[in-house]
Each structure stands twice: as structure tokens, then as C-alpha cells.
Specification:
Layout: H1 2-5, H2 7-26, H3 36-51, H4 64-76, H5 79-106, H6 108-120, H7 122-128
Amino acid sequence: MLLDILYPVLWLAIAAMALVIFATGSQRTYLGTGTETDFTTTYGPEAQRTLGGEPPWLGYHPPGYPFAVALGKLVTGDWLVGGLWISGLAALLLMFCGFKALRQLAGTAAGWGALIACACSVPFQTYASTASSDMVF
């Protein structure tokens, strides 16, 4: 089938989306409001406590995301850039997994449909280029 032959194009499509997501995110120089308020008021301070060697304080949030934020800060040296990398990588992983899952469940065309839907979705692109936990969860 033609869509199976185009499977290598998947990697080009995901690479193109990575370029768009990270180019959009790299234009950001400050944390905004909306979904990023959780990042600045909850996850950032929790990650800061983690980096300081203190145990997690928030009992109603799983510790995985604050640990990822702390790692992002260590790797990039900046809270915003670390958060943007986490969101961007989560978006790319979601696109890939969505393609694979729908391809397996409903056929190759459904997999490509999921990839195209992510690429054309304004909310998906917005959350992929913000420092928030929304894309991860």
C-alpha cells in the first residue's frame, strides 16, 4: 500500500514538527500566564526544593514532572528553556505514539490522520510550545 511505502516520511514529518515546535518555543523569553501559572507557582518551586535536596512537598501531584523540571533546569540552566524542552519532547513523543497506536488499531491511514491532526491543531502547537505540564499529562 502507498501509505506503507511512505513510512520513512514519518520521520521527516516528525522532524519538521520538531523544528516548528522548538522554533516557536525559542522565541519565548518569559513565562506567561494561563497554563504556565502552574509551572511558576507549583512545579517550579517543587523542582527548586528537589534541587535543594528537600523531599517533595505537594502530596496531590506526582513527583515525576517536578523531577523532570529540575533535570531540565540542570541541563539547560534556565527554568523556561527546560520547561519548553519538556513540553516539546512530550509533544513529539505523543505524535509518534499516536501514529503508531492508530496505525496498529485502525490502519495506516488512521495513523497518518493522527499525525496530520496534531500538525494542524492550534491548541496542540500552543501547548507544545509552552512551559506547562499539559502536554506531558
